[in-house]
Structure formats: C-alpha cells, structure tokens
Amino acid sequence: MMTAAALPTFFEVLCARLAECNQEVRRVFHGRGRCYEGLDQLTADWLGNGVLQIAIFKESDSEFYAALQEGISALVASDVWTKCQGTTVILQHRDREGSETETLVGEMPSQIDVVENGLNYKLDLGKRQNNGLFLDMRLGRQWVQENAAGKRILNLFAYTCGFSVAAIEGGAEKVVNLDMAKSSLSRGRENHHLNQHDLSKVSFLGHELFKSWGKVKKFGPYDLVIIDPPSFQKGSFVLTKDYAKILRRLPELVSESGDVLACVNAPDVKPDFLTEQMKEQAPAFSYISRLENPPEFEDIDTDSALKVMHFKHKA
Known about the structure:
Blueprint: H1 7-18, E1 26-30, E2 42-48, E3 51-56, H2 62-76, H3 79-83, E4 88-93, E5 101-105, E6 111-116, E7 119-124, H4 138-146, E8 152-156, H5 162-169, E9 174-178, H6 182-194, E10 202-205, H7 213-218, E11 222-227, E12 232-233, E13 237-238, H8 239-247, H9 250-253, E14 254-264, H10 271-281, E15 285-290, E16 307-313
Parallel strand pairs: 3-4, 8-9, 8-11, 9-10, 11-14
Antiparallel strand pairs: 1-2, 2-3, 4-5, 6-7, 12-13, 14-16, 15-16
Helix pairs in contact: 1-2, 4-5
Keywords: Methyltransferase, rRNA processing, S-adenosyl-L-methionine, Transferase
EC number: 2.1.1.264
Protein name: Ribosomal RNA large subunit methyltransferase K
C-alpha cells in the first residue's frame, strides 16, 4: 500500500537524481524494486527535453494523489527544476485502461527524441503502456555497443531495435532484427535514421520467430545472438515454456566462439532458470557472467530484477 507519508522520500531521491542526469534519459526513482516502503508502485523517468514522467502501477487513495500533486508543485518551483530546464510533468496510470496518461505541468508532446549513452531514440508519450525504450536495459545496450565491432548480430524480439542501434554505433558488420510487431520495427528504422546509420547493414524481419527459423538462419551464422523476449505474449510466447525452443537452436545459429546475451525480466523467474536451461538445451554454451543492472534500478532482491546473462559458444 502506498502512503502519502512516504512521498517526501520520493521527492528527495527524485531531486538528487535530477541534479545528476543532465539531458540524458534516466530512471530517477524506482519504487518497484521494493527498496522504499510505501512507494513500491511508483516510478519516475527523466526523459530530457524538460519532461518528467511519473508512473503509478496501482491505484492509491485521494490523500496520496493530493500529496503527490502538492509535492510536484513544490518541485517545479525549486532550483533543481530550473537547473534541469524542466517544463513538463506527466502522470501515467499503469493500472488503468489504456495506461491513461495525464499532464500535470506544462504540455505533453506526443513524441519525444531522447538521448541514452549519446545515442538517440524516439519515444511515444500518452499512447500506450510502453513508450519505446526499456531503461533498465541501459547497461545491456552499452555492453553490446562495446562488443559489436566487426560482428554479425541477431537481435530477437527486437522491439524498437535499441540493441541494433547500439550495435551499429559500435561497429557491427550486420544486424538482423526480428519482431512480429512490424510497427515496432518501423520505429527501429526511425531510431537508426536518428543516428545517421547505414541501413544497408541492418535487416528488419517482421515475423513470428517460431515460424521463421529458415529466414533467420539465412543471414547467419552470427557472432552474437541477443534474446530479450517478453515474459508473456498471448498466442505466441510463454517464457517458461518457449525459451527452451530458442536455446536448442543456438548451435546452428551461433558461430564458434560466438556469444549469446540471454535476458529475462520476470520477477518470479530466477537467474538459474537460464543457466539450467542452457545446460539442458545447448550444452556447448558456457555461462560467462551476469551483466550488472543500472544502479538507479535498485532492487531488494537482485534475483527478481532484470537478468541479462552472457554465454559463449565453446564448440
């Protein structure tokens, strides 16, 4: 249960992080990690360009909303808000139909170009639950950028192609993006255009993975395969059942000494799910390490947080 009495902690953390993040997109409060009592259904993201997006994941009482509004009024009158050039505060109700979003301060743009690690991404605001970039994967994209030079890369469940943008920026020879949502891949093209990338190095496959192995193999073998699926996608993917189907295909997709970045973002699925599944389905791949999560995504239980696991083909 969220409480109005806990909100001073929210604004204290928020102000401290706003003072540090300049104009890059960044999570500035993460209550979902259960590290802040009475605030576990509250997050805040600084999008740059003067925009702060607050999200509530579970309906609270009128006292909480009144205290939140009062705190926001104080925030926008503060030196912190002036120094970060803040103009807009929006509130997304993730618990309501269509993730209803309201504007509390200023005017909400329908789209916004944000910067992460010096790269540009286009986000949608007020239209859907997810705006186009998962901020907890920041260090994963950074790792890909740092390890992409000269490599052929397969990006499964590509969404808006954040990994692809990072890979091409890092010098990848070729990136193949696969996602059944063609609208997400279209946004991926836009993201590459925003960064002046050579799209002859990028392919976009708008297909369901399990019906498209032939198309995927055609561009291989790959030096790096990225697997970042949803936990559940009605009619197409159930993580605990379908992840194994991908892993057992890895030997025919990944070059000798190639890498796999396997990701899970389901709190109830622990890291050993991936290591055990890999041993069973693709024993030629050895576990190397788990990537760190961004420090701003603090979690009371690291096993419940995002899992990004690095494996290497030892065949």
